[in-house]
Design a protein that fits this description.
The protein has 288 residues and is α+β, with helices and mostly antiparallel strands. It contains ten helices and eight strands. The strands form two sheets. A five-stranded antiparallel β-sheet has the order 4-3-2-1-5, with helices on one face. Helix 7 runs antiparallel to helix 8. The termini are far apart. The C terminus is likely disordered.
């Protein structure tokens, strides 16, 4: 008698229908819990991540309990059956579901070790987005362009993953602005500071900073102003960056603070004034 025949002799045909009904009920219960948590999260924004994390744990408990019950319904797991079958069932099922089992174990380790949580902004395997769901087999990440990426749990056991907010609502955001080395750096820094601290998306209760460094940008020496501040909720990440960038660029134009490339200054003056600017750097461009 081969292994498959030994496996099938322990099946309970009468338990298949109840097992299917239990599987459907557990799926429906898990979906209900997730939907309820999402609804509460939209209403109580401050507790959105905590609610999502609790829903994830409840969903894993539901599926784990359902899986154990289904096995008990479908298979005859009496002591005599296990003694008669020996390790045949364990070997056959383990080999058939090796990757599946590894992903389940990895999912449990993710929930226990918590390298990231539901609602975190993570970077993994070239993808960046928000963790929407930690399942018993996969992690689902929604990228900023609204694409859904499904990653097997066991991938996180060996590959590095970066979490931007580590379970918190707020997250550090960096924005870079470049100006010419001959521009008024004090005025530029003041503009960036005002735009950063007055944005409605900024969480200024945490430390913020503006770092000025000299770099080479597009072949020109430039001064880089790096603005570092926390956004009050990770869902406003792009809105925060857009708000600050637009206001900084508008103020730079009003104050006459130019980008590092000399050619860019001339093009900017043509587009804004309708005529070429008489910048003192123009002879250098012509000579080039």
């Amino acid at each position: 008698m081969d292994e498959s025949t030994q496996l099938f002799q322990f099946l309970r045909p009468g338990g298949i229908l109840p097992a299917l009904l239990l599987a459907f009920a557990s799926w429906l219960a898990a979906r209900t819990v997730i939907g309820f948590a999402n609804g509460l999260g939209r209403r109580f924004t401050q507790n959105r991540l905590l609610l999502n994390q609790a829903a994830t744990i409840i969903r894993v408990v539901i599926y784990s309990g359902a899986a154990a019950s289904i096995i008990a319904l479908v298979f005859d797991l009496s002591r005599e059956a296990w003694l008669a079958a020996g390790g045949t069932i364990a070997v056959a099922v383990g080999f058939a579901f090796k990757d599946f089992t590894a992903s389940i174990v990895a999912g449990v380790m993710i929930l226990v070790d918590r390298p990231f949580q539901v609602g975190d902004r993570i970077t993994f395997g070239g993808y960046y987005g928000e963790v929407q769901q930690i399942g018993i087999r996969t992690v689902r990440v929604v990228t900023l362009d609204d694409s859904l990426v499904t990653i097997p749990n066991n991938k996180f056991l060996t590959d590095p993953v970066t979490s931007g907010n580590a379970g918190a609502l707020d997250m550090m955001i960096e924005m870079h602005f470049h100006v010419g080395v001959d521009q008024n750096l004090d005025a530029a820094r003041e503009i960036v500071r005002d735009a950063l601290t007055s944005s409605r998306y900024a969480y200024i209760e945490k430390p913020w900073a503006i770092v000025v460094t000299e770099v080479i940008q597009d072949g020109y020496f430039a001064m880089r102003l790096t603005a570092k501040a926390y956004v009050l909720d990770v869902q406003y990440e792009k809105a925060f960056q857009t708000d600050v960038t637009l206001r900084v660029r508008r103020a730079f134009r009003v104050q006459g603070i130019h980008p590092p490339a000399v050619l860019h200054r001339n093009v900017g003056q043509v587009s804004e004034d309708g005529e070429e600017g008489g910048d003192s750097a123009s002879p250098q461009v012509a000579a080039a």
